[in-house]
Amino acid sequence: MVNCKPFFIELELTYRCSQQCFYCHNPPREGKFHLAKEISIPRVATETNELSTKGWLSVIDEIKKMDESCNGIMDIVITGGEPLLRSDLEKILHHISKQKLRHMLLTNREPISDDRIISLKDNGLEIIRINLTSHKYLSDLSNLDINIKNEISKR
Question: What pTM was computed for the model?
């Protein structure tokens, strides 16, 4: 029998982002892709053409049906843009958890507060992956180790 389930499903909740990572595939305002060697174009700060909360909950219900038909738990990666910029992230996480789907949040961690971390955890978040390369102080990857050590030593 062939395994019909995907390894993971990526939910790109938004194009909005607080960073301009050189590797990002999300388009800026003009719909053109950001290239590392071009002049940086800030991404929009307002929600445009994003699926509503109700829409995402419906998508999650469909993923659950697919998961059940494939006899296994698939992984959901919650990403964007920056998913923390969605005010309904906790509601989406809660629904994913209620459906007993394994998931993780992929973020650059901006913006976040202690209260938001607690809220995310209370709504079912168990795994979070923070991209270090998204941060402004790590723009030169040739000095990645040095930059990380310097940042850690400052704290």
Answer: 0.73
